[in-house]
Model the fold of this input.
Amino acid sequence: MLRIAIAQINVTVGDLPGNQKKILEYLQKAKMLKSDMVVFPELALTGYPPEDLLHKEHFVRDNLKVLKKIAFQVKDIIMVVGFVDIDRNKNLYNAAAVIAKGKVRGVYHKHDLPNYGVFDEKRYFAEGNQHPLFLFNDICFGVNICEDIWQDEGIYLSQAQRGASLLINISSSPYDYEKLERRERLLSNRAKESKAYICYANLVGGQDELVFDGGSFVVSPRGRILARAEQFNEDMLVVDLPIDDERKKRRDSKQFIQLPTDGELIGRIVAHKNIMPRMTQDERIFKALILGTRDYVWKNGFKKVVIGLSGGIDSSLVAVIAREAVGCENVIGITMPSPFSSPETRRDAQALAENLGIEFKEIAIKEIYEVYLKSLSSGFAGLPSNVAEENLQARVRGNILMAFSNKFGWLLLTTGNKSEIAVGYCTLYGDMSGGFAVIKDLPKGKVYEISRLANNIIGPVIPESVFDRPPSAELRPNQKDQDSLPPYEVLDKILKMYVEDHRSCAAIVKKFGNLQIVKDVIAMVDRSEYKRRQAPPGIKITPRAFGKDWRLPMTNKYREA
Done:
């Protein structure tokens, strides 16, 4: 019997002293729970992903110094922890250290380096070519890292065939709304394939546009999930595993690193085993948005956030998320009515702020807008009013919000959704101004669904009229979004196929039937790339988000025949 603790922690990229402190805190928790082994996520020392910090030799050296300090504190327990290793040829490795009795006893180097989507590991790391197994009180285990277990018939299978009864996979696997089910299904199959227990230790927390959702778990050799940690929260998952020694006859003792022990393993009861229930998909999205916002704000040293409240659904949801992330006392909502703002949206913006208990300011932009028009009148003489005059209002608002951000050091949260950003239905240097785009990867239809869920969870803070009113930018009389765009229920489906699934125009037309609408949407997406490149980072929710997932050329004349 082996008592294993998974320390699902929230670390910060580059905060070596802070990450060291947290690792040692969870080490002590694991020891207090009489654990035989404690496991930490991938690159727990450095945070994930460290990106071009890895080009700084002193950063890599400092990470190794921290590893040595941590190892000195590891007594009467085995630790597995992720760090950055370097060899004599200055090759870097995404690595896992196995520590016992105050020393690093063995190191595993990640073999399969992901280089797709948000991953760019081949830019930094060399592939590992040694895969040691470890023997601890007659229990043989192997360590692998994240992608190593996603590859069919990969290193995990070789480890099991060489005698490992336990496979420990340390991961920093980013969240998207499909990921949990895919992970659990995959590792269940891997456990049955290898006939070994699998301990999956995942990172939790926000890092720029990524959210790591935790949800660490342990799987039996029959593929059954024995225990699951919380999602979107730090957690210590402790499980007693009745590991047998049936594989002894297959083992060659020369292949193993023998770890020192203090006698028999603990393994008395299964008191700490638990299976946290799965949340619904929309609940997970809501939690991811809150965690991603909270960590971006706090980890970057901001104390308060400011939001432009239009009285519409997008800014309402962003305000709710901000309140849940950082507290009502740290959120400021500013409404900026123009000559085209309706009394209803002004009323709803104030009602939302009151319901949330956040600070609320109103700054009318009519006079500023008129000064702009007067100043431009000679240059625009003889020309009809068009989108240029409309967008002046959005840019005035952006300037006001950024002025408050500059004056008080508040982080400006933008409120654009994925549907608008995809087709460029947003104003550069206007409503796109800001430091963090909370719902950047949330399609418009999903904005409504998550807003309704938020009202169900925390109470009816978003006024019902916000759900009922047709979406409008209110930049001209009687304007509606549908004047410029297909209905959102159609637009979102086309965008899903084109942006997330990379489907062709012909395939999308076959699905939806209207060639002109599909061609118009694709053209809007393609020509709006220059805007998206200048947009603030935002939280990844879908399998393919704008940002690292999406690298369309700004100069691009390809069109389907």
User: Anything to note?
Assistant: Confidence is low (pLDDT under 50) at residues 263-272. The longest helix spans residues 387-408. The CA atoms of residues 152 and 190 lie 9 Å apart. The chain has two domains: 2-278, 282-484.
